[in-house]
Amino acid sequence: MRIAGKGLIDRDSVLNFTFNNKLYQGFEGDTLASALLANDQMLIGRSFKYHRPRGIMTAGSEEPNGLVTVQRGRTQEPNTRATVQQLYEGLVARPQNAWPSLKYDFLGINDLLSPFLAAGFYYKTFMWPKAFWERVYEPIIRRAAGLGELAEAYDHDLYEKAFAHCDVLVIGAGPSGLMAAITAARAGLDVILADESNRLGGRLLSEVEEVDGVTGRIWADAILVELARLSNVRIMTNTTVTGAYDQGTYGALERVAHHMHLSPEGLPLETFWRIAARKAVLCAGALERQIAFPNNDRPGIMTASAMRTYLNRYGVSPGQKIAIFGNNSDAHRTARDFVEAGVEVVAMIDCRQEVLAIGNYTVYAGAEVVGTSGRLGLKAVTIRHNGALKTIECDALGVSGGWNPSVHLTCHMNGRPVWNKDIASFVPQDGAVPGLSVAGAAAGEMSTTGALAQGYAMAQAIARDLGKRPKSFDLPLASEGPYEITPFWDVDGKGRAWLDFQNDVTTKDIKQAAQENFRSVEHMKRYTTQGMATDQGKNSNVNALAVLADATGRGIPETGTTTFRPPYIPVAMAALGAGGHAKGFAPERFLTSDAATQELKAPMIEAGLWYRPSYFPQLGETHWRQSCDREAKMVRKTVGICDVSTLGKIDIQGPDAAEFLDFLYINSVASLKVGKVRYGLMLREDGHVMDDGTCARLGEHYYLITTTTAAAGQVMRHMDFVHQALRSDLDVSFTSVTEHWAQFAVAGPAARDLLNGILTHTITDKTFPFMGCGAVQVGGVDGRLFRISFSGEHAYELAVPAGYGDSLFRLLLDQAAGMGGGPYGMEALNVLRIEKGFITHAEIDGRTTAFDIGMAQMISDKKDCIGKTMAARPGLIGPERDQLVGLKPVDAIKKIIPGAHLFETGAEPIRQNDQGYVTSMCYSPTIKSFIAQAFLRDGRNRIGQTIKMVEHLSGVSTLCEVCDPVFFDPEGGRLRG
Amino acid sequence: MVELSFLSATGNKLPIKIGNVSATEVNATLHLVAPFHGKSTQAATVVKREMGLDWPGVHELKHRGKSYVLWFDHSHIAVMGEAPLAKLARVAAVTDVSDGWCIVDVYGSDVRDVLARLTPLDIREQHFKAGMTQRSMIMHMQASISCLEKSQFRLMVFRSMARTLLHDLTTAMESVAARAQKV
Amino acid sequence: MRFSALKILTEGLTGNRGWGAHWRDPEPADGYDIIIIGGGGHGLSTAYYLAKEHGLKKIAVLEKGYIGSGNIGRNTTIVRANYFLPGNSEFYSHSLKLWEGLETDLNYNVMHSQRGQIGLFHSDGQRDAAIRRANSIRNQGDDAELLGVDQLRKMVPYLDYDQGRFPIYGGLLQRRAGTARHDAVAWGYARGADQRGVDLIQNCEVTGIEIKAGVVQGVQTSRGAIRAKKVGIVVAGRSSQVAAMAGMRLPIESHVLQAFVTEGLKPCIDHVISFGMGHFYISQSDKGGLVFGGDLDMYASYAARGNLPMVEHVAEAGMTLMPMIGKARMLRSWGGIMDMTPDGSPIIDKTHIEGLYLNAGWCYGGFKAVPASGNCFAHLMATGAAHSAAQGFRLDRFRTGRGLMDEEGTGAQHNLH
Amino acid sequence: MRIECPLCGSRDRREFYYAGHASALERPDPAASAEIWDNYLHIRENLAGVTNDLWHHETGCGAWLVVTRDTVSHAVLLARLAKRDKK
């Protein structure tokens, strides 16, 4: 119910929202949780395993129970914490994990079966009969498990990522965080202040105590006004720092538009920040923990501090009759505040013997709650007091088992928190995250005055560390009593006592785990699933550890510690992966001929991030093979044009360029004459082939090499490594010019005629002999011409600066069209090269050696080169190696399938008989047969033999003749023609 | 007589303005220069004499009119616009990469907020000042990023990735513009 | 104690008070016939098979932390037998067969779920490679099917077939592949070994390996010296450190591999999906969390935690492949330390020291290997001869170049596999 | 993770390519024994602690770096250019 005169909500701004198909009203400033509580809606969800009815337990992101699905237009967001979701006009939320309804949940039956579903039960059963696991048991378990549901639709919501840099990142804007931020800011440091809430102040917003003589939130507002005025401060609200990573890198999730009914076009729902901070201060406060007493999980039971938050920040009381159960002084603030707000407080049950009330309420000292009643909402608690049981009617119970410092970020780099017996909890280990200091409740400092002082002191120290001379100023004082606690974890009694509310782990489960010798904390957690729920044990790990310690007869510090891994709160995949959806995963690279190619309706294929044309369909062609055959024949007959700009091109200059290249290539390029091109092969240092390409000598000390499309980056990096790390003595420098030059293959008997129609100066076989290169001019533009061929035809590659690529491609197509030629795509290119026995990365797949592809003799014995020594290892040469051969079907079935394996004709097609495999295949319209390249055991010695190709998937098996890999024009007459 | 026509890297898709940030394409000659061993001084002398500019140190960008010299990587500087290429080529490896890069100037008061969504560089004013040039990434692309003025940056990515640059840039510009409207 | 449905029932009715310890906590004896260093999945399964198949009695497993605290407890739980190079093929095939009988064998439900794994391919070249792989798998006698896009759309409709950066050309399906509950595998083997008399000694860190005249004598531990006739090193992630105690240096570089799980969700992903172009793989656990991972963080590390660039890369891969997971929230990330070898394949071999054996180099394929790794290592340690399914995992293959198993084709750079 | 590039200053890990232990700088003589080459290419000290490894500032300045780093804490202690300048 709403309490008049309380809260920071705007009662003039009414917001309509829907939960569980029912319309409600709340106010601007509400969370979904506070608005539901204001409407007396206590039942919010069902637990994971036993489907127990559950209500709101906390007022923060650690909420384990109040998880709902929020519907936003076409998208739905499962597992949204009602305690974090700000209310907006028109919000639609649904309960989850309940069928047919929240009130009557069929799987509530699990609760009755719970004796048979105790810790680890599934490891002990469901094994008979064997096949039933996948078919019967697992589907049932899967359907029963899980929380919310994903919409199986494309998620179109916008998310983004961004980077930020600062001197100091202050995490949390409670008293210590505000003090740290203002202190660092006044010292002139660049500050980022990030807070999970939409409003700065932290616990100050939930408490009535004063700071510096005014209510805490008014003090916070004043600090905020000063911070907002400073240009060196960046305030990030709705931002949760999610992870601490190396060298001061932090992840942070900003909820940008979750609170908006309508958001401006282009505004992301969330931004995931990568923050690089020289220093950081963790001021994340503390989280209140529960006490495990029988049936402590009914709707209406929540933490005592959450109750105060609902009252003081949202003007809501979760009930008409309030009871409080605690083991520490802090719990009394809840009783006091509710009494002052005019709400009936029926009992303050304190397990400590000596207790003083701080307000007008009934205290049961030395008492404990031993049971509760109310199926869908709390109706009464039973307490044990002075040896007698007493039932007290109430509809809300606030519980405080003490406070756990928010040590989570300090664990992200494997730091283990340490036990502090004064506060009966874990505190951060010093230096757990380099550059991160901890202040306030997060450090175990439970008084507001102390937190303010620590925030100040940490920031002063950081400022001095970073070379500033910060001025000192007077510290504000807070008006609260000391924090006194007596450790108290669980209550024995009839009925189950919950620890992990969402995963339904009870104290009995922990004890059973110990009994089964899962005594290590990690074993206990994994066996019982304690701490594995969406709150990752924030609410329950310390209690569970205490119960385990008790069950195993050890103290808490000896039993172990609790740790946390990033992220602090669960982060949407769409936020972490922002920009990755659809085409954003990797850059797209387009050829200069792309527009013209698209106009010709060529289907595009992806290669090394580039898009290249597969083939150029002509009118009447209905199958790619028709286009491919035509294009291949066209090149053999007249002339074809192909954009080959994707090949890596590296410009190499310097007096030692030749020596450098000789160290990279297995063959010699130093002997190459200016104006000539040579094929070259590079190895990795392990003796396997890295890449092949051409090397053109443009000048005495000037080379241009090409790489394959796929290996362009790898080769460039390799060259950088070899030069900088191994041979920096060589006076050579190189740079990629792949992108500067648009380069087109002009291939076919009419290639020279075509070129002579457009080049400024006519070329001849003398000026451009086979494997010649040089400068040319075309249309007033300086270009380069290489007489090289990947098709086996008389062919050239013509390069111009990329700005002219589109224009040149269109010109070449025009010229070719007049000669009966035209463009050809990757399919035809593949046919032409297989006919000629040229290799691609289908053959040099990282496992093949120069020996395997028949190029061992190219390895120069006059010089050292990368990979030479290791290529001579016994396992990399010899008859046991698979060697490159050609294959031609000679059976009734004239089909070869790439990827198929090879066997002796009579052998069974099993691994033990494997003789090799097919790498590439095409139909050759020239040879009028399917032809293929393959690696065959000792293949070069088996040319002329017959081998059986078996492809299991399609059931195709055929006999093939083993041939030389060069099928067409083995003498190379056409190249020189 | 045939003629070839020039097409810019973005295909004339710029300028655009979203919110208070604008982007325009720059077409200029661009050469990478790496002095041969022992020739650094001579190369610097050529640049000083012919261009009136000091050889750029790491992360330095200098310009006179429309001629720029800028640090480019561990072994190269870049010269943009008019430059004594022939003289430089005697003492250094000079490589024409004019058409290899898509060059876009972005400017406007929120330009740094836009860049914060694109690059891991520290783009705070006091850390990335006018006259600085750095190599880094724009989303997944290798990039050269230079600060020409407090609120004006020059971005360069490989030419073939121009479309991706425009996509990434406009997405970031839209987001920053939308934040300004956010209520 | 034998687990059965009846036992669950009777225990349930009597307050679950009768469950005994899964395993004992014995004090270490003075000496053993065989000491296994490392109480992870591989070490436990080695001990189990030594006791079960070779009838050896005096066996101890020494674990510096708790049983199953290594990579067995921090992986993405995928079980498959789809390797294509000889050496790997027969080994993983053997392992999958052991998986298929594991629950009956161990009397422990490890929730081995043969839900099928689909490896997607994105170009003609990748399809050819998939066919080569599928045929290798079939040659070995295991199952493999090639799915076209139409079939894929029916099986996994939520992939982005139309707008993704790398178009989906099809997938290689292995129906017998799937997942298992990782911790349960460790516990099942531990319980089975314990029942057969193996001493599982937790919180016992090996600090030295005693060698005399080239023959192993025993180990020094944080709980005193223990004699042994044979010692097996099974500590993937820390192999180099333990081998160094015997003066050995290994062809291994340690790297961190991260893995991730989301909050629980109702069933939406019914298979294991691998996205080769993005180094991304995903499945959904029985509890509803999406379990996924990607590539190594790529720098040598023993930190068992990673950094953001790989977290983001993995999430981006997920978003381009299956945008429906955008609203799933990553709940937890963790890291495991991988023994990366120069060819990406493991080592199960003798060492030059008599009585000292090495099981290492699992890169990030160790989980699916657990049954066969223990089975073959036990065979080697008990008989002195390599098991027929593990002949290829020799330590000297890098020096000779014979029988390299470079499935990725990336060569002798440890982190690229 | 951030690395202090000697040329570029503190940079995000995503700009760098990692290539293993810095022993790769000590390329053996081509005539050296099989064992020496095996050691060079395959065998690693693989220390849990301070080690030197090779990083390429690939999307930054392009320099290859030798980075002294702790493999347990991920502390980066020093980064220097791999290039042994003989200009």
List the helices and strands and how they pair.
The complex is a heterotetramer of chains A (977), B (183), C (417) and D (87).
Chain B: E1 16-18, E2 21-26, E3 30-35, H1 40-51, E4 61-64, E5 67-71, E6 77-80, H2 85-91, E7 92-96, E8 101-107, H3 111-116, E9 132-138, E10 141-149, E11 152-158, H4 162-181
Antiparallel strand pairs in B: 1-2, 2-8, 3-6, 3-7, 4-5, 5-6, 8-11, 9-10, 10-11
Chain C: H1 5-13, E1 31-37, H2 41-53, E2 59-62, E3 78-79, H3 88-100, H4 102-106, E4 117-121, H5 124-140, E5 145-147, H6 149-155, E6 170-174, E7 178-179, H7 182-195, E8 199-201, E9 206-212, E10 215-221, E11 224-233, H8 239-244, E12 253-264, E13 272-275, E14 280-284, E15 289-300, H9 308-321, E16 329-340, E17 347-350, E18 356-360, H10 366-383, H11 397-400
Parallel strand pairs in C: 1-2, 1-11, 2-8, 4-13, 11-18
Antiparallel strand pairs in C: 3-7, 4-6, 5-6, 9-10, 10-11, 12-15, 12-16, 13-14, 14-15, 17-18
Chain D: E1 2-5, E2 9-12, E3 17-21, H1 34-41, E4 50-56, E5 64-70, E6 76-81
Antiparallel strand pairs in D: 1-2, 3-4, 4-5, 5-6
Question: Could you walk me through the main structural features you see in this protein, from its secondary elements to its overall organization?
Answer:
- The complex is a heterotetramer of chains A (977), B (183), C (417) and D (87).
- Chain B is built from four helices and eleven strands; from the N terminus they run βββαβββαββαβββα.
- Chain B has 183 residues and is an alpha+beta fold.
- Chain B has two domains: 16-27 and 99-182, Gyrase A, domain 2, CATH 3.30.1360.120; 30-98, Alpha-Beta Plaits, CATH 3.30.70.
- In chain B, 55% of the residues are buried.
- With 417 residues, chain C is an alpha/beta fold.
- Chain C folds into two domains: 5-78 and 182-251 and 343-416, FAD/NAD(P)-binding domain (3-Layer(bba) Sandwich); 114-177 and 253-340, D-Amino Acid Oxidase, subunit A, domain 2 (D-Amino Acid Oxidase, Chain A, domain 2).
- Chain C is 29% helix and 26% strand.
- The longest helix of chain C has 18 residues, at 366-383.
- Chain D is mainly β and 87 residues long.
- Chain D has one helix at 34-41; strands at 2-5, 9-12, 17-21, 50-56, 64-70, 76-81.
- Chain D is 9% helix and 38% strand.
- The relative contact order of chain D is 0.27.
- Chains A and C meet through β6, α3, α10, α11 and β31 of A and α1, α5, α7, β12 and α9 of C.
Shape of chain B: globular
Low-confidence stretches of chain B: none
- Give the quaternary arrangement of the chains: heterotetramer
Rg of Cα set of chain A: 37 Å
Given helix and strand content, the structural type of chain B is alpha+beta
CATH class of the largest domain in chain B: Alpha Beta
Helix percent of chain A reads 10-25%
- Largest sheet composition of chain A: 7 strands, mixed
CATH topology of the largest domain in chain B: Gyrase A, domain 2
Low-confidence stretches of chain A: none
Terminal Cα span of chain B: 62 Å
Q: Can you name the CATH architecture of the largest domain in chain B?
A: 2-Layer Sandwich
What is the helix fraction of residues of chain B, given as a range? 10-25%
Q: Which overall shape of chain A is indicated by the principal axes computed on the Cα atoms?
A: elongated
| Span between termini of chain A | 95 Å
